[in-house]
Amino acid sequence: MNPIRVAFVGTGNIARHHLHALRRVRTPHVVVGVHDKDERASCQFAELAGAPSYQTLGELFAVAQPNLVHVCTPAGTHFQPAREALLAGMHVYVEKPFVDTAREAEELLALAARRRLLVCAGHQQLRDPAYLTLLRQTRDLGDIVQVDSSFAFLPVGLSAERASASALAAQLVDVLPHPLYTLVDALERMVPDLAAIKIASLVAGPRDLHAVLRANRSYGRLSVSLRARPVASLLSASGTGGTLTADFIRSSVVGAANPGTSPLEKAGNALVEAWQLAVRSGSGVAGRVLHSQDYPGMAELIDAFYAATATGGASPVSPDHLRRVTTLFEELVANVRGAVRTAVPRRLTLPRISYDAPLVVVTGARGFFGREITKHLARQGYRVRGIGRSPEDEDPHVQEWLRLDLSRSAPAQAFAGADAVVHAAAASAGGFDSHQRNTLDATRNVLHGMRAASVQRLVYVSSLAVLRPPRTPWEEQDERTPLAEPTDRALGPYVWGKAAAERIVAAEAPALGIEARIIRPGALVDWAYPDAPGLLGRRLFGRWHLGFGRPGLPMPVCEVGQAAAVVAWMVAQFTDAPPVLNLVDPTVGTRRRLLEEFARHGWRGRFLWVPIPLFAALVHTARYALALPKLRRPAPLALYGILRPRQYSSALAEQVLSLATKEPARAAPPLVAAHP
To answer: What is the spatial distance between Cα 548 and Cα 596, in angstroms, rounded to a whole number?
Structure first.
């Protein structure tokens, strides 16, 4: 059998998961080419895949001549590349959601049928071991009465309480496909002679969605929430003979599968299910840890699709299933977005800055820190232009939004007319490649965009973590302390990226005619929503946290509003602002003081303290133990260097905080009342 010639369109994080899953695909295959609109990202992914990168889809299809294409572009952009691949005669595997509308789904499926090609969507939970076990055991449940799909999710990079309705709705729409397609597939398999699945009732908002689906005489109940806790992904099938529940997080199935009507069943079912929960959850979680880089079911689904294309079989995800899921998805999404549109925009009830006011451009304006920075700039009378991958039009403090991926480009028009730029955008998660693109490349692009727009003032948001680890326990670090070595990756991608980006600013900004001010805040905290910073510890269970060190050790923190006020002050008093500022709150100098302040604002957590050297040794032991079955040495990690306590001089920070929080607002044109 000749290997299947595979191509990737879109080279983001999910494409990397696909590529990793290919290691467990048994059907012979070879990656022959990749394409992404971001040429740098495409080349980096091509190096991982061991295949060429092509600048256009047409070149990829004509030169590489793949048999099968993975469409891994962002949600909302799947239709066009999938259509072009089918027109070029290639099978298509499309990441979820398949497409956005029933019309697009019908066009792709009809095109595939005419050309005798296969289409599959990334519905990997259909091959999750827990779901397959549930399907095998449903014969014990009798006639299925209802199927419940429940999904509670922690928003990525957002707060369900503070984020805007549009941002939360986008997150809700992004996670909706998984609980929806598993519910639809379960109804298709469990309800005899299924004619159609219709939405019988629906309540939708930006944070939650609840729907009842009618399937003949059975029902499906869909619940997706960004607020409900704990985080969960469950599918329960209830019939006349009992109930079984598949847990996709623990990769287990729980349920006695009996009617529970006799006295013995009533008493014994709780014991049976408790035993199942303990044993099966333990083994399921252990399996997830050992395969931490895998999405359960992804490799199995891709393998089944490859096998079908090689042997002329049917796609593991049927066209009828894709039609049903897309039709329901389109209607559910329309209701979620409709709920956002009907909300009264906060901007219309607040004052608006005059367009004669000086302009400040803020990158990363949607982030935790960026939102506070825009608020304080607006209070100072500035007009704010926010830059981000996803604009947040409901933010009343940002007068203009630009949708930009700074890792790709930062055109001059993004900064045109600005008095200053606050560069707060950076990668907060991911590996070194992610920080290379979203921190280093983005910073360099911002500098060149500012030069092209003749903007000469930059406030760069760095981090205290960029300083090299102290050489002695009593060393006091200040603004003159050197940065971590550029070759030292053992401090992790975040420190490596932020330190390298600060070096770029220091070295390249003067040559471009840009004067920079660098602010390095400590751990940012919000008294209104207390949450333990990562350097302090990790939550264990409920209110209990594992604390690193002991209560008396130093803890560099700053309240996010105070830090934002300092940034706004540095913009307003740019000439007098220090070139570099290590920002720490001198009134909260230790772990104990931070926890006391949290408690004063209603936090009720508890800490179990462990010595940092002991914790570092335990983590290293666990990392090597987990890597041993894979016969791979874990990447270097200087955990003690990351967590060890540091002494910081707060003299300069104390002066600036006093000025920033007491100095009156700069002279600016008066606020103009907003009009609906």
So the answer is: 17
